[in-house]
Design a protein that fits this description.
The structure is a single chain. The protein has 38 helices and 4 strands. Helix 21 packs parallel to helix 24 (about 510-520), helix 22 packs antiparallel against helix 24 (about 510-520) and helix 36 runs antiparallel to helix 37 (about 775-790). Strands 1-4 form a two-stranded antiparallel sheet. Strands 2-3 form a two-stranded antiparallel sheet. Helices cover about 60% and strands about 0% of the residues.
Length: about 800
């Protein structure tokens, strides 16, 4: 869903940005099934009270919206001011109104098309050589849209000539250059020196209209060149000139320029940073002098705003002008402004979206509330309003700790304990006082962060009606509390009721459903019972620009589900290979997942010397993965166990088979990997005890801790003794690279004419370059390299292995 930016958002964007925008991202894994940072519910639905399960780790915009919905209750939310799409618009503004790269490409392409149409030729450089076509734009996209529209209007004028159009385009390109977009300069934005731009004005003999249109460009060039005195004067002149084609914008743009000047710190980015550091250390006198200058600048800006507001002809700019005043208030007097807006928002019956109150509050909260202190946690800000107190209280207990990580859990518990006591006190106070709205809000907070379920709290949580916005959050908390208290029957019954109930279905939240699935899986009674809750589905993903959900295209995710971290942990350390065999035959699971589990069991049986069971399991794999039938038939046909083991290791490398369930799942149907790209990357150091984390890629808890899943279920019927013995064996083995390397070197000694050995030695050497490695990886790399070149030096694989690592 694309939504045009309102003028107020453009005002904020142009005031604060120097032009450059940086796209950020990372390669850290994310929880694919539970949204920990923000809701996965479409923001329009969330704003209307469909909250799903709210987590204390949600962003403040989500927490505020949830707090307001609970304070008002479902009936009150229906009558309170709640303009459609307002929350999504707040989120869009908080991103600076930045368009994604695809939208920027379209906007820039429209600009190039307009230039080609006007000048009857391509703009330099040619499209194939223009770096801006496939890059992020530094100038605000609104400036490109405005320039494209203006050029179209100029082209249609009767007095348009090729020379006049070319002059206008040339000046506009200078404007874009000033704000960081120069397609003729291929250097990185940060590598370019900032050079002020001052295009030459048109000759006095040119028609007045064309000179006046260029005056806007000259003022804009001065603005982006950070010459705010000049840009303010030029915009003032436009606003004061009767009949000027852009007169309606002149006063407002002069205000924008004056506002930027009030915030401007000259110098390079490094010099500006140093100025901010010095400001933090300034003396009381210096601080007082700086604040006096800021107050005078704010007074000057507010005087200009008053003049604009007094002019009915500028009514279209009134809202934008007020926004600039609020921006400066937030910058110069943040605590005071935060207090003002917090008090307005503290009454949930007020419209939080009027004059962008919520947006202002969120921006100031980012500055004042981040990194909350332990214990009392910013008492001077808690006192500002009940809302602020509520948000700080909830966020001090974010996130839920992984319950089996004792060190981390202890730290979270210590930081959270004061808030847990405070939330209990506030809830009891308001309940006793008869303030139903506040009592609901603080009960909601208690449900999210309390680690102890008192009889009084349990009774109140059980009384929350299914129609209440907080219902699912409270029910999820109850399921968790029942599990932690050892009341497994109650936990199972509650989770089962919600998973099959109307409230969860109507919420359209995959995240909420998966949270209940986590809880139900954790209290499973048997392998078959656990299988019902083992897989998680994800039918939606969130558009980062709009906050709206979009359908996920992966059918495995939507229709059949995938393993989450708690399921992987259970398969890796909670079951013996014989239990995996039982699970692989469970028809509650889709065939592809049964096949993966069967392969895991086969690898376990084989690598722990249980060859008779391995042969039987190979037959099960044949059934669940027919494309592997030739591999499995050959495994069963071999007589000597060492030959069987080698055959399985050879194909484990070819296909990626592993005794562990990794973050990634093998694609179905199974196909061999590209021989030139194959690595011994099938497993890292394996766990040696029940519940121990699998250290995949050297990062402990890279999935389970991230997903903050409950402990794995302790189900009946598991062969605990066999599981313990198998894990001890597997935990003593090397990583896939080391294990395969030792195996291949032994194979060279026993079967030197094996045609697969040159390739396997190549794979071993290449695998020692990085990834999960053992302490002797360097020695292994050199040994495998030496054997490859001495014994098989004429092979193609030796020629493809010029180095060891």
């Amino acid at each position: 869903m694309n939504r045009p930016l309102p003028a107020i958002a453009i005002a904020a964007l142009l005031l604060f940005t120097g032009g450059h925008a940086v796209a950020s991202g990372g390669e850290d894994p994310v929880d694919s099934f539970v949204n920990r940072n923000r809701t996965d519910i479409a923001l329009g639905r969330y704003q209307s009270g469909h909250l799903g399960v709210v987590l204390p780790s949600y962003v403040r915009s989500n927490l505020f919206t949830a707090w307001r919905a609970v304070m008002l209750g479902a009936p009150g939310l229906q009558t309170a001011p709640n303009p459609a799409g307002a929350l999504a618009l707040v989120e869009e503004r908080r991103g600076g109104g930045w368009q994604d790269q695809a939208q920027g490409r379209e906007i820039y392409a429209a600009w190039r098309t307009a230039v080609r149409s006007a000048l009857k030729r391509e703009m330099d450089p040619a499209p194939a050589a223009d770096p801006l076509i496939d890059s992020y734009l530094n100038c605000p996209t609104a400036s490109y849209v405005f320039a494209t529209r203006t050029l179209g209007e100029l082209t249609a004028r009767a007095d348009a000539t090729p020379a006049r159009l070319a002059a206008w385009v040339s000046t506009q390109r200078e404007v874009f250059k000033a704000c960081g977009d120069d397609p003729l300069d291929r250097r990185d934005y940060f590598q370019r020196p900032r050079v002020p731009v001052q295009p030459a004005p048109l000759a006095a003999t040119e028609p007045l209209y064309w000179r006046q249109v260029q005056e806007y460009q000259l003022a804009s060039a001065a603005f982006y060149s950070e010459d705010y005195a000049r840009s303010t004067a030029l915009f003032d002149r436009i606003g004061a000139t009767a009949g000027h084609p852009l007169r309606a914008w002149g006063d407002y743009l002069a205000l924008r320029s004056q506002g930027r000047a009030a915030l401007y710190v000259p110098g390079t980015p490094d010099e500006r940073w140093q100025a901010r550091v010095a400001q933090a250390k300034e003396s009381p006198d210096a601080k007082a002098a700086r604040q006096a200058r800021q107050q005078q600048a704010l007074a000057d800006v507010e005087a200009r705003i008053a003049r604009i507001l007094a002019n009915p002809a500028l009514a279209a700019r009134h809202g934008d002008s007020r926004a600039i005043g609020r921006i400066l208030q937030a910058k110069f007097t943040p605590v005071e402004r935060f207090g003002q807006v917090s008090k307005l928002l503290d009454d949930p019956r007020n419209d939080p979206y009027r004059d962008d109150r919520l947006g202002d509050w969120l921006a100031l909260a980012d500055r004042l509330l981040d990194q909350p202190e332990p214990a009392t946690g910013k008492p001077e800000l808690r006192a500002v309003s009940g809302l602020v107190d509520w948000v700080i209280t909830v966020q001090q207990c974010s996130p839920y700790s992984p319950e089996d990580n004792r060190e981390f859990a202890a730290k979270v518990a210590a930081d959270c304990a004061p808030s847990q006591a405070h939330v209990q006190d506030r809830w009891q106070h308001y309940a006793k006082d008869g303030n139903a709205a506040q009592a609901r809000a603080w009960l909601f907070a208690a449900a999210m962060i309390n680690d102890r379920l008192t009889p009084e709290l349990e009774k109140a949580m059980l009384q929350v009606a299914p129609s209440a916005p907080e219902y699912l959050t409270v029910r999820y908390a109850l399921a968790r509390h029942y599990r932690l208290a050892g009341k497994a029957d109650q936990a199972r019954a509650l989770s089962e009721a919600e998973l099959t109930g109307a409230a969860l279905s109507s919420t359209a939240s995959d995240s909420a459903r998966n949270l209940f699935l986590q809880e139900r899986f954790a209290v499973a009674t048997s392998v078959s019972d656990a299988a019902r809750y083992l897989l998680r589905s994800r039918g939606y993903q969130i558009d980062a620009d709009t906050g709206e959900p979009a359908a996920v295209q992966d059918p495995d995710t939507v229709t059949r589900g995938r393993l989450a971290a708690d399921g992987k942990r259970w398969l890796n350390t909670g079951l013996a290979a014989s239990d995996l065999l039982t699970l692989a035959a469970d028809r509650q699971l889709p065939a592809d997942e049964r096949g993966r589990i069967a392969l895991t069991a086969l690898m376990r049986f084989d690598m722990t010397g249980q060859y008779e069971a391995a042969v039987k399991e190979a037959q099960q794999v044949e059934v669940d993965a027919p494309e592997l039938a030739p591999v499995m038939r050959q495994y069963r046909a071999l007589v000597a166990n060492p030959d069987r083991h080698h055959w399985l290791m050879l194909n484990a490398v070819k296909y990626g088979f592993s005794p562990m369930r990794n973050t990634w799942a093998l694609a179905v149907p199974y196909v061999p990997r590209e021989v030139d790209e194959t690595r011994a990357d099938m497993w890292c150091k394996m766990p040696s005890a029940v519940g121990q984390e699998y250290q995949e890629n050297g990062w402990v808890m890279q999935t389970v801790w991230l997903e903050q899943a409950p402990p794995m279920p302790q189900v009946a019927g598991v062969d605990a003794a066999r599981r313990k013995a198998e894990l001890a064996q597997l935990g003593a083995l090397k990583t896939a690279t080391g294990y395969l390397g030792d195996h291949v070197l032994q194979r060279v000694a026993s079967k030197p004419n094996d045609a697969d050995l040159p390739w396997l030695l190549h794979v071993v050497v290449r695998s020692t370059r990085g990834g999960c490695l053992d302490d002797d990886a360097k020695a292994l790399s050199k040994q495998a390299f030496t054997v490859l070149h001495k014994r098989y030096g004429n092979s193609a694989w030796a020629k493809k292995t010029p180095y060891f690592y």
